[in-house]
What we know:
- Pathway: Amino-acid biosynthesis; L-threonine biosynthesis; L-threonine from L-aspartate: step 4/5.
- InterPro entries: GHMP_kinase_C_sf (IPR036554), GHMP_kinase_N_dom (IPR006204), GHMP_knse_ATP-bd_CS (IPR006203), Homoserine_kinase (IPR000870), Ribosomal_Su5_D2-typ_SF (IPR020568), Ribsml_uS5_D2-typ_fold_subgr (IPR014721).
- Belongs to the GHMP kinase family. Homoserine kinase subfamily.
- Its EC number is 2.7.1.39.
- Helix content is 30%, strand content 24%.
- By secondary structure, it is of the alpha+beta class.
- The protein has two domains: 3-177 and 319-330, Ribosomal Protein S5, domain 2; 184-318, 2-Layer Sandwich (Alpha-Beta Plaits).
Amino acid sequence: MPEYKIVVPATSANVGPGFDVLGIALSLFLELDVTVDSSSSVHLDPNSSPKYNLTLEYSSENSSVSLDPDENLICLVSLHVLKKFNYFEFPKYTHVKVTNNIPLGRGLGSSAAAIVAGVLLANAVFQLNLSLSQMFDFCLEFENHPDNTTPAIVGGVSASYVLDHSATKDKVDYVKIPVNKSLKAIVAIPEFELPTSHSRSVLPKSYTISDIVHNLQRIATLTIALGQDPIVPERIYNSMKDKLHQPYRSALVPGLSKFLSSLTCSNTPGLVGVCLSGAGPTTLALAYDNFEAIGSKIIEIFDSESKGSFKTKYYILDIVDCGAYCNCTSS
């Protein structure tokens, strides 16, 4: 009986000035435990066979997620991939148990993780032997900017871009960026969801040249500064400033403006940089020391600015160099 374990990390995109470019893989995970058992007694009656030969189960933390394969994002992606290879259902009988520790709709790449997991699920159950390029291409069909899916697949910190939507292969190119091993991420997660579509809707249709240059200068510096040893906190901090999306999204996240302006590497030992995580509402702080103190300081800011309208919790996460993977646990 084939069994598979699929693991996909959370990601934080739009890192600092890297709007739609830079992403980080973090140590929160979406996990799939997959079994394929054609002899399962549960399905001996052909009239009771599940849709697409698939049964889906979620842990209690994500009980609101649809179990219908025609609505569940992991299943939709997986079925899409299978159809490209002329498979229209899963092997009899496939059971998928999902344990998701990535908060939904909070700017930590929950959708990207589901998309990557769907691709890996299809790849595993029919042994498709997808190349890395094929995985990128399938992900791009569901999320047209690869700054979340790329670090989810390859791990670490990455910069990625779309070569050409009309290309027949190799649509996504990326590089992994060296990162000082002492850096960790402190993510502060407010207890409300912010749909990416809404967060994108507040962005302008055009930008001034000065704002574009501001981000270009800093992204060039940041990609080198992150890997320097010893760390130069002031360089990373100044390089993580943004003018393309954070100023416009500040109104959507009470406390974001104060978080970005009042938390500095000079008044907060160990801190090297702050930014919005993805489209929000989660925020990201990079640090090399005093992680708990920094987390507490961030919570104080959001508790004060929210005026009790929502609670915020923080996690201290590793930057994980290994991206998504699938292990066959039995045969």
